Amino acid sequence: MTTIDSINNWFVQNFGEVTLEQAKSWFVYNPEEKLLFNTGLFLGLFLVFYFVYAFLRKTFYLRLTYVILFSLFFYYKSSGIYFLLLLLSSVVDYGLSQIIYREAKVSRKKIYLIISVILNLGLLGYFKYMNFMIVTFNDMFHGNYQLHDIFLPVGISFYTFQSMSYIIEIYREEIKPTKNYIEYLFFVSFFPQLVAGPIVRAKDFLPQIYQKLNLTKQDVNNALFLIIGGLIKKTVISNYISINFVDRVFDTPMNYTSFENLMASYGYAIQIYCDFSGYSDMAIGIALLLGFKLPANFRTPYKSTSITDFWRRWHISLSTWLKDFLYISIGGNREGTFAGFLFPSLFFFGLLLWGISNVNESFIPLAIAFGAIVLFSLTFLLSKKRHQTLVTNFNLFTTMLLGGLWHGAGAQFIVWGALHGLALAVHKMFMEFFPSKKEGNDSGFLWKFFSILITFHFVVFCWIFFRARDFETALQVINNIGQLTFEPENWKTIVLGYKNVFLLMLFGYVWHFLPEVITSKMKFVFDNTPLIGKAIILGFVYWIVYATAVAGSQPFIYFQF
């Protein structure tokens, strides 16, 4: 009895009395308190969920239904009543996938596929791009249409792409449909990766549903290592850098010095990596505890030696999805299509208009527009296989433009995608002229070092557009950085003023650039740590999560996509 009283007293002292209203709030949607992996509420709910899940491990449909119910609750806590949108989308796509699978005529199959794509992209377009289209129309044609009050459901882009991949793979006859709706809904709504990925392919995930659950000791070690690492990345590094430095500078860049704008750009680079890779690590770890293996989503992307290498390491599940379902669909490196030529042409036309409209203030925008058009043209005009390179580069540029638009409805995201598309085309031209410098070839330490340095700084430059609230703010940040002068005393004052922020930035970059041999040894030490040691580490992480919850948890960056 004394022990129970002691535990109760400790709980009250640290967490306070639990009232009926507080308990009710755990299960009711609150837009200000979404259910995130790095909150104490999720940890508590997951422990209860997992306790029951362990008893259901030998069942099949009961276990699937139980996970589906928790997944829908998880999504309800993130987006409120809009969890019904997920259910509606799943019912429609499941029904159309069954029709496509049973249909013998290819022409009819294609019609049903087009219907599914239109419905999915139509829903995504309304919730994510309606106001962007209204603003664009009003600006171009001097319209006065009012903006709609539209709530953006968390992670709608992720589960839309996942659902589309399922129905496209059935159309291509790469997979067979699930035996029933329960199995399909389990795939679409699986909560670890529901709202921010990794985007799971049906052909990789569905076979695991039918396998017997087999959770080994090594799986548990891997899961805990990923979850702990993800929590530290998110709660210790990303949140602190964001709140105490990066957000302030990017909100009002003109109020800060050139050096602060530069360091905020470096800060955002490590912030978004720690935020998104931290979420992915936690998602993969939690899924692993449930007996499911999700694909890796990041492989130390800032170690990339080229922009092509970067996209093999950054958000791997999205870049793979875009390659397989967009790039290849519009022709890939085989043929040109109307869509493949349309979007780059529209972008460069718009870029030219932007340059002309600003010519009275400065010739720089027009020079940038002409320079971009000439540079992109040279990527295929100088090629030995001119026609094939032209087709490839246009399709690649289209893929990156639409990839940028997928991330957000704004000119800054389109520019971000265009910069990456242009860089990929330039890198392909470079590789044609210097084939000995391809990845995998031993080009020497200095070449590798400068390749990583240049690629990293190009990516950081692109992140400025990605982070800025609009295109004009991005230009302000770039203009401020362009006025940087060598003032070591002022820099020292700023560094000391933001000492903790810069230390965490340094910690994040050192962690990221650690050689694989060291990270492997760290993993080996963790795996062989006694149970009491792992319990202490977990206790420390619990404390971090609790401390973060008291300060107010920050949402994951990719939730808005």
Question: Could you characterize the architecture of this molecule?
Answer:
The chain has helices at residues 2-15, 20-25, 40-55, 61-79, 83-102, 106-141, 156-171, 181-189, 202-210, 217-251, 258-289, 307-313, 316-327, 338-357, 364-381, 386-407, 411-433, 445-467, 471-482, 488-497, 499-513, 516-527, 531-551. Helix 10 (217-251) packs parallel to helix 23 (531-551) and helix 11 packs across helix 19 (471-482). With 561 residues, it is mostly helical. The chain has 23 helices and no strands. It starts with a helix and ends in a 10-residue tail after the last helix. The chain is 73% helix and 0% strand. It is globular and about 75 Å long.
Number of helices: 23
SSE string: HHHHHHHHHHHHHHHHHHHHHHH
Q: State the shape.
A: globular
Query: For the CA atoms, what is the radius of gyration?
Result: 25 Å
Intertermini distance: 50 Å
The class by helix and strand makeup works out as mainly alpha
What is the typical, i.e. mean, pLDDT?
Answer: 86
Stretches where pLDDT falls below 50 for ≥5 residues? none
Q: How much β-strand is present in the residues?
A: under 5%
- Helical content class: over 70%
Number of strands: 0
Largest sheet: none
